C-alpha cells in the first residue's frame, strides 16, 4: 500500500472512531430515557440533575427509579419549598401553622382543672370530645394534673384542649406553665379553648393573647341565635344560622389577629375564632354551657371536632 492510500485509510478509521465516541457521549441516556437538551426535567425527579441532561447525576450516572420529592430543584433540594433539604431529604413534616399536615402525634390532652367557677357541663363535654376524637382516629387523654404543663410532658401531645379551665388551672402564679404552653403552640402544636378557659390568669398578657380574648361577663343563660362567619372548617358543617341555648359571652382584650368564624346574639358578637400562632394553631369557642348541647348536634361533630382537627392540621 502506497503512502497516499495509507493516509486515506487512516483518516477513514479515525473518523469512524470519533463518530462512535461522539454518538456515545451525546446520544440518548438509556437509563434516563430522555434526550440531552430535550424536554425539561419533570418536577419531582430525584437526585441532582446534570446541566442539560434529564435524570442524570452530576457524576455522569443516571438516577433511574429513585424516590422523588415534588418540585425538587437541581441538586435534589426543593427551591423555596419548606421541609426540603439539599439532596432531596425531608427536614420533617410541615407544621400546622404552615398549612401542612400538622403535628405527628395523634394524642390529645383534654385538660379540665378549674379553680374558679366550675361548669356542670364539663364532665359531659369531656366525654363527648373524647368519644368524637377517638372516632376520628385520635387518642384523647383527660387530666386535671398541672404537672402536664412542662415541655417534656406536653411534647407527647399533638394538641391541648382547655375545657372550662377557670381561675389558676396550672397553679400559682402559673407563669412558667403559661410560657410552656405558649412555646408549645408556637413550635407547631394545636390549642383548643372552650367556654370560660379565658376567665383564667386575667392579668397575664401572654395567656389572654394566646387564647384570643378575656372573659367579660354574659347576659342570662337562655335561647339565642348564632351565625357562621365564612367557611372555615370549624364552622363549614354548621347551618348559616342556628338556635342555641347558652351564655353568649362578652370579651375584652381581643387579639387583633383572631379570625372570627362564629357570631351570636342580636349584635352578632364574636363567639368563636381561629388563628395561626407561630407555627401552631388556636381554635376557641364559647359555646357549650348547656349539658344537652354536648349530646346532640351540632356542637361536637360540626364545630368542636372540626376545630380540633384543624389545629392538628388534619
CATH architecture of the domain at 107-311: 3-Layer(aba) Sandwich
- What name does the CATH topology of the domain at 107-311 carry? Rossmann fold
- Please work out how many helical segments DSSP would assign: 6
Detail the poorly predicted runs.
1-101
Whole-number average pLDDT? 77
Number of strands: 11
Largest sheet: 9 strands, mixed
Q: Biggest sheet, strands in spatial order?
A: 2-1-3-4-11-10-9-6-7
CATH homologous superfamily (4th level) name of the domain at 107-311: Class I glutamine amidotransferase (GATase) domain
Percent of sequence in beta strands: 15-25%
Text of the CATH class of the domain at 107-311 = Alpha Beta
Straight-line N-to-C gap: 84 Å
Shape, per Cα inertia axes: globular
Give the structural class.
alpha/beta
Radius of gyration: 30 Å
Order of helices and strands: HEHEHEHEHEEEEEEEH
Concise overview:
With 314 residues, the chain is α/β, with parallel strands linked by helices. It has helices spanning 3-26, 122-135, 151-154, 175-186, 205-211, 299-311; strands spanning 107-111, 139-143, 159-163, 190-194, 214-215, 222-228, 241-246, 251-252, 259-264, 269-277, 280-285.
Describe this structure in words.
With about 325 residues, the chain is of the alpha/beta class. The protein is about 25% helix and about 20% strand. The protein has six helices and eleven strands. The chain has a nine-stranded mixed beta sheet with strand order 2-1-3-4-11-10-9-6-7. It has a two-stranded antiparallel ribbon with strand order 5-8. Helix 4 links the parallel strand 3 (about 160-165) and strand 4. The longest helix has 24 residues, at about 5-25. The protein starts with a helix and ends with a helix. The model is unreliable at about 1-100 (pLDDT under 50).
